[in-house]
Amino acid sequence: MEKQISLQVDGRQRQLAVDTRTTVLDALRDRLGITSPKKGCDHGQCGSCTVLLDGRRANSCLALAVAHDGAEIVTAEGLAGGGTLHPVQQAFLAEDAFQCGYCTPGQICSAAAVIEEAAAGHPSSVTKPGSDGAVDLTDEEIRERMSGNICRCGAYANILAAVRRSADFEHEAGPAQQVPDAEITGSPTAEGMPAHREDHQ
C-alpha cells in the first residue's frame, strides 16, 4: 500500500509516494537520492543514519516515512548554508575527525544536535544534579551524548575534539554566525570534497 507524503528536506519541499513500510532513511536514499545518511545496522544501533527530524536528532532507519508526513528533515548535506560549512563540519575537518567517512554524516548531525540540546539545558545521564540553564559540554558529557554514534575506525579522540571545538565556537560566536574556521580556510581537503548526487525529479 502506498501513500503520498510531503517532506521538507534540506530546505527543499519534496513530494513522493511511498510504501507505508518505508523508513525515512530509505525514502531519503532510494527515493530522493540523498545519500549522506548511511545505512549501517538498520536497527538504530550505530547512528550512521542520524538526521535532524523536526529539529531533533533521530535514527532515520527506525522512523516510518508516513508517520512523518510534513516533517522538516536536515541531513549533513543541509547543515551548510550559503556555500559556508556549518561550524561542526568545519571542526570535523580541522580536527581530522574521520577516517573512512562512513559514519561522519551521522556524527555531524548528532554533534550539531548535542550542542543545541546542551545549550537548551537538556540533561544527560551524567549531568550533575541541580544544573540550571545551559549544560557545560565536558568531555564526559560529549562522550555520553555521542555514544549512540559508532565509529568503526575508532576516530573517537578526534571526534571528541571536534565536538568540543564546535561547541566552543557556538558559545563564542553564536549559532547564527557561520564564519570559516581559519585553520581550514583554503584547505585542499575541504575544497576537494565532491558534492553529493542530488535527485532533481
What does this structure look like?
- With 201 residues, the protein is an alpha+beta fold.
- It contains 7 helices and 5 strands.
- Strands 2-1-5-3-4 form a 5-stranded mixed β-sheet, with helices on both faces.
- Strand 3 and strand 4 form a beta hairpin.
- Helix 3 (87-94) crosses helix 6 and helix 4 crosses helix 6 (156-173).
- The longest helix is centred in the C-terminal third of the chain and has 18 residues, at 156-173.
- It is globular and about 50 Å long.
Describe the structure in brief:
The protein has 201 residues and is of the alpha+beta class.
Biggest β-sheet: strands ordered side by side in the sheet = 2-1-5-3-4
**Which band does the percent of strand residues land in?**
5-15%
Q: How many beta-strand segments?
A: 5
Number of DSSP helical runs: 7
Low-confidence stretches: 184-201
Label the overall shape. Answer: globular
Instruction: Characterize the biggest β-sheet.
Output: 5 strands, mixed
Report mean pLDDT, rounded to a whole number.
87
Distance between the termini: 22 Å
Task: Using the CA coordinates, give the radius of gyration.
Answer: 17 Å
Topology order in helix (H) and strand (E) letters:
EEHEEEHHHHHH
By helix and strand content, what is the structural category?
alpha+beta
Helix content: 25-40%
Brief descriptors of the model:
201 residues, alpha+beta, 5-stranded mixed sheet, 7 helices, disordered C terminus
